[in-house]
Amino acid sequence: MMKFILLACLGMTLTANAGAEPSSQVAWTPQNLDFVKKGHADHGQELMGTCAGCHNETNANPNLEGQLPTYLYKQLQDYKSGSRKDPTTAMNGMASTLSDQDMADVAAWYGRQKPMRGKGGEEDLTGIVYRGDGKRMEPACSSCHGNSGQGEKVDTPRLAGQKAAYLENTLLAYKNGSRANDIYRRMRLIAAKLSAEEIKQLAEFYAKQD
Ligand code: HEC
Ligand code: HEC
Fold it and tell me: What CATH class is the domain 2-8+117-208?
């Protein structure tokens, strides 16, 4: 019940805050969903050769393995259109070389790989992951990202096992508005109410989640 009230409140805040600038050019029409679903993983495997130099275990760039293809596709489109700005600009340049079909294909390939996993056994020091915070009208992270941080259809990403440094940086970017490609400002509104300390704890929690 509590969760329902929180989400209903959040919904109202979202409508009130919706700005004129669209946060993303991606609209999840049945045609778009079908297009991403039919991505060719074999062609995606050829393309991933250009990604693996940056997306691997040796650096702080995000893991892509096991991520929802629809989420990956949306991010690539957002980098290409400029709705999401990579502070290093690497991804904006990279995405501008990809066609819609390439994006669906590489998303299909990564989506089929085994996700990175944490070791499990972590503790949520903020209390927000499963319960949210009624005083701040902060919804539980798990209400959207799933009970194991596994992500949910269509565009809510997997967080479990993601690199802590990346999670922290991207939450800080939602908080200060430099990442603004979340439709209906869902993540910006949530991150704005978190302290830097809570963001660090949440990032560490999800990185360790199995
Ligand atoms: C030169 C390095 C570089 C290359 C090459 C590169 N990336 Fe990235 N990628 C990054 C960085 C850095 C980020 C994080 C940027 C940010 O914070 O917005 C990123 C972020 C992403 C994200 C967002 C992940 C998330 O969880 O939101 C996706 C999706 C992505 N890259 C896909 C790809 C794909 C697909 C390729 C190959 C076609 C590729 N990248 C090649 C550096 C690179
Ligand atoms: C109302 C649903 C909702 C709730 C609640 C929610 N999220 Fe999200 N989250 C999303 C959506 C949707 C996205 C993708 C937005 C986009 O396209 O940029 C996202 C993106 C993220 C990302 C970016 C991941 C990546 O790979 O770049 C992080 C990190 C994140 N959320 C953490 C959290 C945390 C921590 C909480 C709890 C404090 C939380 N979220 C609560 C819907 C939600």
Answer: mainly alpha
